[in-house]
Amino acid sequence: MSKVQNRQPADIECWLTDMDGVLVHENKAVPGAADLIQRWVDTSKRFLVLTNNSIFTPRDLAARLKASGLEIPEENLWTSALATAQFLKSQMPHGRAFVIGEAGLTTALHEAGFILTDQDPDYVVLGETRNYSFEAITQAIRLIGNGARFIATNPDATGPSREGPLPATGAVAALITKATGREPYIVGKPNPMMFRSAMNRIQAHSETTAMIGDRMDTDIIAGMEAGLHTVLVFTGITQPEDIDAYPFRPDQTMASVADLIPHI
């Protein structure tokens, strides 16, 4: 998709935004996030909040965000689980999948018409869970060895917890790859596929859509590759001094989403 130059926030009709590090930080709303969501609602802007986390259903995620101080309708949430289910439905309607993951992923695949089974599946789908089972991983390795296609919801190697980092989808995918010699197709960020599926969901066009993120290596590069206006905020992972390490640039940088509100 061609990149339209000199776009400004006032020109944007549809917004995609990352969740962790942009709207919430350590389960608390980032200052300005609630006001930004309200501004979009008041002005009837189409928007989606994106997350690579595949654990929660949109309903569960909306409840968790409400506890953080953000009122976001579940239809405005787009997870890597939903993107994965949509992708697989487009590839093989009514297919069969062996799934390692939580309700967010299993529910999305069920609603997409998939049969979840460990008997001759078309796909092994690996998502996020706090309780990875060695038995399930072993089963996945054997099914992939027997010809099942390997799909992962996201590439994140670790996830946060109060006790410290936890091994996440990317780390477990690496274990399976080592055992099978098969790399997964990863649907979530930084694959622009996730952004394109989100834009399809709200009937957005790349020329008039922006992406707000806190990570150069996922949000900004994927937004750039999808042809979107990109806004980097410094309330999460990437800080101003980190930008020079990358061979690409966001269209705009801001301290937080609070700085965006006067411009839209």
Describe this structure in words.
With 264 residues, the protein is α/β, with parallel strands linked by helices. It folds into 2 domains: 12-52 and 189-263, 3-Layer(aba) Sandwich (Rossmann fold); 84-186, Rossmann fold, CATH 3.40.50.1000. The protein contains 8 helices and 15 strands. The strands form 4 sheets. The protein has a 6-stranded parallel beta sheet with strand order 5-4-1-13-14-15. A 5-stranded parallel beta sheet has the order 7-6-8-9-12, with helices on both faces. It has a two-stranded antiparallel ribbon with strand order 2-3. α2 (58-68) links the parallel β4 (46-51) and β5 (77-79). The longest helix has 12 residues, at 80-91. It is globular and about 55 Å long. The model has no long low-confidence stretch (mean pLDDT 94).
